Amino acid sequence: MIPPSGETLPSTQRVLVVDDNPLNCDLLARRLRRMGLERVDCVDNGEAALEHLRAHAYDLVLLDLMMPVLDGYGVLTTLRAEGQLPELPVLMVSAADEMAGVIRCIELGAQDYLTKPINAPLLEARVRATLERKQLRDLMAAQLERTQRDLLAARRLQLSMVPPDQPEPGPHGPLCVAARLKPAREIGGDLIDHFPLSDGHYLLALGDVSGKGAEAALCMARTVSLLRATARQHWRAGQDPAQAVAAILAETNEALAEANDSAQFVTLFLGIADLHADRLSYACAGHPAPYLCTPGSVQALGVSPSLPLGVMPGYGIRVETVDVPPQARLLAYSDGVTEAFDRAGTAFGDTRLAQLLTGCTSQLPQHLVASVADGIHAFAAGAEQSDDIALLAWMRP
User: Domain named Response regulatory: which ranges (predicted)?
Assistant: First the structure.
């Protein structure tokens, strides 16, 4: 931090004095050095000042108003056009009768001014105050940059948690899967997971944590870990998929509801596809029903009313079972899809989603999620994304 008045300033800070009068330059330089500022450069015109500013990093500029070649107005105008203001603090130095010009310079981006003849205590006070403001801005900018780096790293980590698409039938069964996750901020609370179980079964999950940002992202990561752990614990070859879905949801709900001081909850679609019987056992814990798309038909699957996970312990969620014919597409999504808004504040809505899916019933899963994402983007027409968007599509060829 900048030391109080009377103590020397950090010698590492660099100051540029711009004045066409050599005596004024020398006087200002000597007074600045007495304050502890050893790195003081002097130039006698605006063009030379700009050359120095482009070649070196300065902490402060003392700029005379009236100079040959290029005056103070021209220097400020150029610095402003180059985007160096207000990060580079400029103190104007002018005669007492040049106040109109000083006001114009402050409007151009100068931070303060001094009048000639220079008053030494006032010079020190203005220099200290200006350098302290710059130091605080630099610290805040550095902290913001670190935070942005951390958030970008967290975003990459979150996106990497989404399993890769399976565009072709894999070794664990004839299923094609594709997903798309787009957080509204750097990180978000939507989750997507899918992975093979034994004996020709496949688990599919898509959820939405309440809230946004880091807290929601941490809850999302915990929920994914819980789902995977409970699935490994409860799934056995030959088991009834509907019973497994119920057990996984019940245990995950108990874990999320326990000591839930932050009052966070998770809406969740969870399904287990039986690839031998062409059947899906699924449940929606406070989550929108997925769509079943077949040639000439798009319908939302039936779901029983249910609370999200984490709201209360001991809450049972009804599991549904539906036949899924070969070539049928299924799409699970978060409410960020239907609650996407355009510039007029109109929501994308369930009707538009169903209409869009009507034209996509023959698309492969990776093309289906891309079509929905593109449709939302076109509808929003540049409006800011207000909620995380998650899409999960799958089909049995």
Answer: 14-131
Cα 287 to Cα 270: distance, rounded to the nearest angstrom: 10
- Per-residue pLDDT, 268: 96
Q: Show the tokens assigned to 219.
A: 């809850």
Which residue, among 354, 362, 360, has the nearest Cα to 397 in the 3D structure? 362
Same domain, 220 and 346: yes
Rg (CA), the chain: 32
For 130-167, give one letter per residue: b (16+ CB within 10 A) or e: bbeebeeeeeeeeeeeeeeeebeebbeebeeebeebbe
Which residue, among 264, 267, 237, 236, has the nearest Cα to 249 in the 3D structure?
A: 267
131 in the same domain as 186: no
- Cβ–Cβ < 8 Å for 293, 329: yes
The domain spanning residue 100 has which CATH number?
A: 3.40.50.2300
Classify residue 189: in a domain, yes or no.
yes
Residue closest to 360 by CA, chosen among 348, 373, 347: 373
Kindly report, residue by residue over 102-125, the tens digit of the pLDDT.
899 999 999 999 998 999 999 999
Q: What is the DSSP string of 103-127?
A: HHHHHHT--EEEEESPPHHHHHHHH
In a domain, 152, yes or no: no
Neighbouring CB atoms inside 10 A of 309's CB total 30
Domain that holds residue 43: 14-142
List, for residues 186-238, the tens digit of each pLDDT value.
788 899 999 998 878 999 999 999 887 788 888 888 999 999 999 988 888 77
308 preceded by cis ω (within 30°)? Answer: no
Asked whether residue 184 falls in the same domain as residue 81, the answer is no
Q: Which residue has the tokens 């001014």?
A: 113
C-alpha span between 384 and 39 (Å, rounded): 47
User: Which of residues 296 and 58 earns the better pLDDT score?
Assistant: 58
Question: Is 292 contained in some domain?
Answer: yes
Alpha carbon distance 397, 394 (integer Å): 10
Q: Taking CA 171 as the corner, what is the angle to CA 167 and CA 177, rounded to the nearest 5 degrees?
A: 25
Residue 276: strand pairing partners: none
Q: pLDDT at position 9, please?
A: 63
Residue 92 near residue 114, CB atoms below 8 Å: yes
Does 347 reside within a domain? yes
pTM reported for the whole predicted model: 0.72
